[in-house]
Amino acid sequence: MALTSRVPAGSFPTPPRAELEAIEARLAAQGRLVEEALDRFLVSGETSPQVVHQAMRHSVFAGGKRLRPILVLAGAGVAGMGPAGVMPAACAVELIHTYSLIHDDLPAMDNSPTRRGRPTCHVVFGEAIAVLAGDALHALAFALLAQTADGSAIPPARTVGAIAEITHGIGTQGMVGGQVLDLLASRGPVAAADVRRIHQLKTGSLIRACVRVGGLLGGATRDDLEALSRYGEDIGLAFQIIDDILDVVGEEAKLGKAIGSDAAQAKVTFPAVFGLDVSRSLAEHATAQAIQALAPLGARGEWLRDLAVFLLSRER
């Protein structure tokens, strides 16, 4: 969508509280499945070298919505595959996300002392161990992705495709590229149109990859993958806009970090460039586009639709 395209703020209907609570309960249940799997896949903190394994577990189990692995499960569900077959891939994207947060929080990047209400990895373990913990999580993620080919349910060619999808989503044309543009943008003026590009890469590219990886591993058709791709692009944008808004108007206790940190670091955000009202309407428009993209999936896209609606209404 063009950044000038918007719907009037507040025109996207807020679902009844009971509906939101039901979605949140399902999210929590799937999050617990992911947490249990992460606990199995991560090495014990008592295993040598203990300090790096403790640092990895400190960051992975610091809380969070587990949205990215849940999107992998949802993408696989569209293709008719249950959680068990794609759980290693779902955990892999969470490890990648966590490694990126560890590195983002470092003094050389955002210099964040807390994350999700807890001291960040480098605060507890020091900068060097934090860097290495992030590196180790990155490596383990690809070991888990390769593991999806161990069973008979997923042909090796699908695993290769999923690995290629993730590498594109997190490289210089994805997450890392967005981080670079974000760092450069904080040093001087940035065009309004660049805001979307930064966040498409920094946040949206991995979110898009998650739903596609689930679909790829599950054997989704080309048309289904196209629908998942368009959904992922739009939901990734909406997610980041809401993140930016919450940094301005959210509650610190719910977010687990200081409010206003983006402004303090001169970050390029949607509210900083467009204001809160326009940013909110842009998030609503992106959410509506994401839901529209699911139309070809029919009932198979219902959970993804629920996720889109819930994410627009979130407070953390």
TrEMBL record:
Cofactors named for this entry: Mg(2+)
Q: Which GO terms describe its molecular function?
A: metal ion binding; prenyltransferase activity
User: In terms of domain of life, where is this protein from?
Assistant: Bacteria
Keyword Methyltransferase listed? The answer is no
Keyword Transcription on entry: no
One GO cellular component term, please give it.
cytoplasm
Pfam families found in the cross-reference section: polyprenyl_synt
Which SUPFAM superfamilies does this chain map to? Terpenoid synthases
Q: Which GO terms describe its biological process?
A: terpenoid biosynthetic process
**Gene3D superfamilies cross-referenced by the UniProt entry:** Farnesyl Diphosphate Synthase
Q: Which UniProt keywords apply?
A: Isoprene biosynthesis, Magnesium, Metal-binding, Transferase
Residue runs in coiled coils: none
Family, as annotated: Belongs to the FPP/GGPP synthase family.
Q: Which NCBIfam families match?
A: FPPsyn
Could you identify this protein by its name? Polyprenyl synthetase family protein
Say which species the protein is native to: Candidatus Segetimicrobium genomatis
